Amino acid sequence: MPELTEPAAAVEQFDCPTCEVPAGSTCRTRGGKVAPKYHTPRFMLVPQLRAELEVRTPADRGPGRAWEIGPAVVAAVPEAATKPTRVGYARCSTTQQELQSQLDALQ
Description:
The protein is mostly helical.
């Protein structure tokens, strides 16, 4: 996705219309926590990303038309991995907690 690198960075140039954080800051929830994803209105300010967010409706579908089943979709067969991937998670939510014992347990 090299073509989206520049427009995605352009999102940071705008204040968020939803949470009103200034340009260059991450979006925040009403409680002040960092939002896990950007608010959609912020993306709407970048024309190329706005076009990516538009959902195109096929001509044979729309309001007032009965739903009909579409063509069958062939599911992709996942490639066999040589080794399973293991994921570990460690965190410290207070200053009294220390991370090293969690990292040692994960190893």
